[in-house]
Amino acid sequence: MLACPSISVIASLHRFQRPIASLHLSAMSFRSHAFSGNPIKSITQKPNEPFSPQSAFLTLKTLLASKTHGSHFPHFKILPFRKGRPLVGSTINDRMWRLGWLKFDELVSYLESCQLVPSENDFVYIGFNPEGDVVYWAIDATEDGKLVNEFGAKQLCFVELRTLMVATDWADSKCMGELAIAGHARALLEWGKTSRFCGYCGSATVSMEAGRRKECSSELCKKRIYPRVDPVVIMLVIDRQNDRALLSRQSRFVPRMWSCLAGFIEPGESLEEAVRRETREETGIEVSEVVYHSSQPWPVGPSSMPCQLMVGFFAYAKTLEISVDKQELEDAQWHSRQDVKKALAFAEYKKAQETTAAKVEQMCKGVGKEQSLSTDFNVESGELASMFVPGPFAIAHHLISSWANQDDAPEKHGTSALSNL
Q1: b vs e for 347-361, b when ≥16 Cβ sit within 10 Å of the residue's Cβ?
Q2: Does residue 157 contact residue 365 with C-beta atoms inside 8 Å?
Q3: 244 Cβ neighbours under 8 A, 6+ residues apart
Q4: Which sign, positive or negative, has the C-alpha torsion 327, 331, 333, 338?
């Protein structure tokens, strides 16, 4: 079962010529996938506790009504968003972005300078830090473009979450935590925008529990509505000899990029069934054993699906002949371990991260525009790589690198290799 992979994984390991237990993550250091490991994600508290959504919301409501923005407990920090983009700035000493947290009085001052009056229902509770007596909120500031100039004067700007994802130093746990916070907040805000009306009766919904759920306003309905999560299976299909992996291309991919197969789970379908169905539908390949690897929140999809959950698997093919569904894929091919290892070795992921981080710094200073993420990954000689796979910010990278580098890893037993993420 997904919630306890150790039993199913161990049972499956002995069936393979080369045990999946020897699969390991790439040599780079990772504590968690991008967008996971949120350091302030809330723990459920009793409604009367000071850091609970209910108590914090009452304090927020009182502050807004009194129009006195002095000292208060707990302290509030607010992260503004605009069109799904969090407010960020850059650090002074290095090219590292940071979230643009504002104190409560700072935010109100910015809004009032733009003739905006915030309502308590504009805020969404995203967590707390009891050690610092701080409650964290997010707010959608899309309505007034004047705020862009106000924040720009302080070298703060709104940046696409995908850009920040590439710009994040994946070896920096603090920066990875900032990314996870931004992803969590964006998912809640975007869900809030897409759930303004009840899907059962069509009545308007009202915010509850400081924006963490909604309820139908109709007395005849009163349906409770919770944040949406869309589960997606993503799988690296391997041949029975464990020498080749099936990689695919979609038409929207940048040139030369190949990745894993993926697809949404259908109602009434198990995760393993979804892996087999999607592989068969998109490539004609039949799959037997399916082994869980890890999962990753993915809050950078379209606003209609504000938070996907990528559930990663290794899958072993029973057949080898490929028949590509051209409506789903541009191409699918078997790639040797040697070719995949070469692609991983030459793609300059660190260089791409540092370049993107530098561009975010320039954007915050008001001297650069947001970059396109279709920039080519170059090999060390300066020539274009013949193929590459998604960077370390994506679960696809870890599925592929785990398989490609398994011969370089010391023999491991049980599920220790799978518990690194």
Answers
A1: bbbeebbeebbebbb
A2: no
A3: 238, 334, 335, 336, 337
A4: negative
Task: Please enumerate in sequence order all residues whose Cβ is within 8 A of that of 95, keeping only pairs 6 or more positions apart, or say none.
Answer: 354, 357, 358, 360, 361
Strand partners of residue 135: 76, 128
pLDDT tens digits for the chain (421 residues)?
333 333 333 333 333 334 443 444 333 344 579 999 999 866 777 778 888 899 999 999 998 888 766 667 788 999 999 999 999 998 766 678 999 999 999 998 888 888 888 889 999 999 998 778 899 999 999 877 788 888 988 899 999 999 999 999 988 888 999 999 999 999 999 999 999 999 999 999 999 999 999 999 999 999 999 999 999 999 999 999 999 999 999 999 988 999 999 999 999 999 999 999 999 999 999 999 999 999 999 999 887 888 999 999 999 999 999 999 999 999 999 999 999 999 998 888 888 999 999 999 999 988 766 555 444 455 444 456 678 999 999 999 999 999 999 865 433 333 333 333 3
CA distance 14 to 26: 23
pTM of the model: 0.85
Cα distance between residue 294 and residue 20, in whole Å: 13
Q: Per residue, what are the HEC states of 263-323?
A: EECCCCCCHHHHHHHHHHHHHCCCEEEEEEEEEEEECCCCCCCCCEEEEEEEEEECCCCCC
CA 126, 128, 131: angle at the middle one, nearest 5? Answer: 165
DSSP per-residue string spanning 194-252: HTSB-TTT-PBEEEEGGGTEEEE--TTT--EE----EEEEEEEEE-TTSSEEEEEE-TT
